[in-house]
Design brief:
30% of the residues lie in helices and 0% in strands. By secondary structure, the chain is mainly α. The protein has one domain.
Length: 56
């Protein structure tokens, strides 16, 4: 997840840079996993991505 294609795979709304209709949700957008349960963060990222789809 990042601000440009050179340093990341997905944009801030979890869309692939080269294929805007593909969303990478869940924990797959993180390069590492945490030691605590990241469930709420994953849900928040998924919600944010879905709300962005709804706006466009």
């Amino acid at each position: 997840m990042g601000i440009d294609e050179e340093n990341s795979v997905v944009d801030k709304f979890n869309r692939l840079w080269r294929c805007k209709n593909v969303l990478v949700l869940d924990g797959a957008c993180w390069p590492t996993s945490s030691w605590q349960s990241p469930t709420l963060t994953m849900m928040a990222l998924s919600r944010r991505a879905c709300l962005n789809i709804k706006k466009t």
